[in-house]
Amino acid sequence: QVQLAESGGGSVQAGGSLRLSCTASGYLSSPYCIGWFRQVPDKEREGIAVIDDDGTTTYAESMKGRFTISQDNGKNTLYLQMSSLKPEDTAMYFCAAHLSGGYCLPKYSEYNLWGQGTQVTVSS
User: Would you state the pLDDT for residue 38?
Assistant: First the structure.
């Protein structure tokens, strides 16, 4: 069973940047979808961006512009570059994957492999 582990979270001031990483402990066999999600207490988990094994990316509409997803297949690592961070970006950030084909969408209900999350806190 592949395990996912996020890192790179922390505290940053508004306007700052962070890069999150998600490392897979094993090989993600194709086809797969993998991506980033976030959640604040008492709110539904929301999708940010996902990427498939071919490198095709899909962003949630509200996340376009300040977030960039990428992957390094040689390192089994997924990244999320975040810029111009705002206090409302404060959340627990998760990476998640599913090993099936089809068009990858940032819908959390479709993903069954989850990391433990990394906290991002943006102060004003």
Answer: 98
